Structures are given as C-alpha cells and as structure tokens.
Amino acid sequence: MVTMSPANRTYASVLQDLYSLQKYGIKFGLSQTANLLSGLGDPHLGRSFIHVGGSNGKGSVACLLESALRSCGYRTGLFTSPHLVHFNERFRISGQPIPPGETVRLYEELREAMDEREPPTFFEAVTAMALACFQKQDTDIDIIEVGMGGRLDATNLITPLVSIITNISLEHREFLGDTLLEVAGEKAGIIKEQVPLLTAVTDPDVLDLLLRTCRRGNAPIYRLDRDFHHRDQGRGLSFRGRHLALENVRVGLRGRHQRHNAALALAALDILQGQGWSLSGEGMSQGFARASWPGRLHQVCDSPRVVVDGAHNPAAMEELARSIPEEFDYSRLIVVTGIMEDKDAPAMLGAILPLADHLLFTRPEYPRAMEPSTLCLRSPAPLPQHEIVPSLPRALERAKAVAGTEDLVLVCGSLFTVGEALSHLDPEAYPPES
Question: CA 84 to CA 82: how far, in whole Å?
C-alpha cells in the first residue's frame, strides 16, 4: 500500500511517493488508468491528441512534432518517458517542463482519485497526471508517447487525430511476446476506429497485420515512402505529401535516422493539415531546425569529446553504430556502456563492438541495471581491450583519462545510463534531481 505523506508536501516528497509506486511493477491493462481519469473528471475527453508508438524513434518523432506545432503558433503538450534527469521532463507545455509546484498540485489531485487499497503503477499514475495537466493548461494539441507496447498501455485511453507506429522490432519479450508478429499485435492496439494510422513499417508480415487491423476498424492507413515521399539532403530533407511540399527542411537532431523520423513527423503534419489544421511551411521548418532532444547523439563536452546516446535495444544500437562514423571524425572510439537486465545485451553489444577500441562495462544507479561483470560475460567475442568499472561516474572519468585528443568517448546502452552521465558530465545544465 502507498504511504501517503501529510498535506502541504514538498516536491521531493511527491517524487518519493510516486517512485514508491514502482514496486508495483508493470501491469498491463486500462481499467486502473480509466478509474484514475474518471476521478479526475475525464480530462482526456474532447481533446486533440497525436499518439506515437513503435519500437524506436517515437520520442524523437514526438519531439519534432511538438516543436513544429509550437512554431506554427499552437500551445502544445508533450508527454514522453522515461525522463533523463528530472521527473518533470515528462510533462512539457509549449516546450518547457512544468514547474515543481505544478507537479505537487497535480499529485495532490491524483491522490483524491486514488484507491489506496488498489494503488496504481508508477506509469498509470504519471499518465493520468499528464492528461490532467494538459487539460488544466488548456493546450491546443498534445503529443503522447506510448510507454510500452500499445494495446494495454496506460496512454491508450485517448482518441487521437492520428496514430503513429514508427517501426516494430523485437523488444520487451516478457511483456509483448517472443515473435515479431506478437509484438506487432500489441503495438497495433493503438489503432482506433476511423482514426488514421501513419507508419514507417516495411516488414511485409507486419504491414499485413496493420492493414488487417485498420480494415477491421475502418481506419485509413498511410505509409511513409508510399503516400509520402522524402529525400535526404545532408543535414535536412525534402518532403512531398498530399498537402505539403517542402524543400531543404533542416533537422536539429543529428543522424540520418533523425531525418527519417522528421519525414514521418512531416507526414503526420500533412495529415493534420488535411483535417483543417493551419500549418505554415516556415513555421514547420523553424520548428524542425530548433528541435532539441537531449541524450540522442548528444555531444556533451570537448577535450575529450564525449557523446551520449540512449540506444536501448538491438535495432537502436545498430542505428547508433551506423551514425557514429557518419557524424563524428575520431581516431579511437572508447565505449562506456550500461544496459538494463531485461534487454538483449549480446545483440546490443554485438552491434557496437566492431567500432570499439576500448570498452568499459558499468551500470547506472538504477535497480534494473545489469551488473557490469554479467554484462561482460554476455558480450560476444572477441572483445576489444576492456575494463569493468562498477561505478558509472568512475567509468566516465576513466574513459576520459584513456581518451586522447583525437579520440571519441561514447556513452550508450540505456537512457538511465545517459541521464546519470549527463548529470556527472554537465551538472550545471543537468543538475541531479534532489
């Protein structure tokens, strides 16, 4: 049972209460979130949403959409997970995290809707807080990132203007299934009756599943590279849709994969324009150029250069391995990695090991983090020169000591690893959450 603190609580005590809900783990189902939202007055009804699911890139697509819509003059809400450093990064109003005082007020209201005999999970509580927050802030449109899967994810009580499935790969097998089609079936659960689906999925069997699901729900389906076309232009892209035609759209996020994510975001905006939303080409272009999504191919410091990236599954790590030599010039690559216990560590490491000249196994201070010695044992052979450094701050300092002036340090494996690394490497910009 949740221990409730006295009234007039502090932000720190609210976070303590919320994090205590993590002991209830991950529970798939919508009834608990529905009960919470009912107690809050159903703040999600009658609102404008974009729902973003998929295996990789959904956070980046959500970020790009929010930045473009805000630059077009709309008041936006953005809900993403997990956070990197500060809890209130999860809720953004017009690009800014909500202040601690607002977090406290939202939680106090949530407590009134909670049944202490059947406490919600952490994600159920946070999702309800986000939807209540956006209603209170009177946003014009809210971009909601799926937490895990889709069908039984707490976010799946919204009815969006458009649903997006970025891509689908094997992940979270203990929750979503052991085959690609089982995972796809869970992610396809965000498809709503008569709500357009936009996807960049290319696997024929997965596409067939999505098509059948849309057909049952009379939901139009739109595909990138069939209904919308784009061309890479270095740091930007050109785009042709049904309503939009844009040239040389600069993308503020690094990496070829981010230009692909930008094309998917533009396709969603094209669909919105077809629904009557007023979107200027200049506004969208400015939004894409200004988009910032920390922790993704993010250079934190120089001398030596340190780049952090939250790649947390095999597909994301493969994309990271392609992007590093394309985006950075370096002599040697020193990799610092910490991975969660529930991830496919051998496949993840197999993607990045061919680039690594020196490897440091470590772990962030997070309960689900794999022990560095275990991570080392699970690594595919042959290993480059490597070390086991249990403390992430010590591993970072060791990597910086090993790196020469022409070398690059890469921190990867989990957003939890990246968040802790940012606080250590740049405490002024990312002070640890007290």
Answer: 7
What's the pLDDT tens digit per position in 149-164? Answer: 889 999 999 999 999 9
Kindly report the average pLDDT of the chain as a whole number: 93
Sequence letter at residue 257? H
With 80 as the cut, is the pLDDT of residue 51 above it?
yes
pLDDT at 134: 98
pLDDT of residue 24: 66
Axis-axis angle for helices 58-71, 281-290 (nearest 10):
130
Region 39-52: mean pLDDT is: 98
Please tell me the predicted confidence (pLDDT) of residue 136.
Answer: 97
Strand partners, 345: none
8 Å CB contact between 123 and 32: no
> In the chain, what's the furthest Cα-to-Cα distance?
59
Look up the pTM and report it.
0.93
How far from 428 is each of 21, 310, 397, 400, CA to CA, in Å?
30, 20, 17, 19
Domains in the chain, please, with CATH? Answer: 11-290 (3.40.1190.10), 298-425 (3.90.190.20)
Give the contacts of 8 (CB within 8 A, at least 6 positions apart). Answer: none
Distance CA 370, CA 85 (A): 20
Mean pLDDT of 273-280: 97
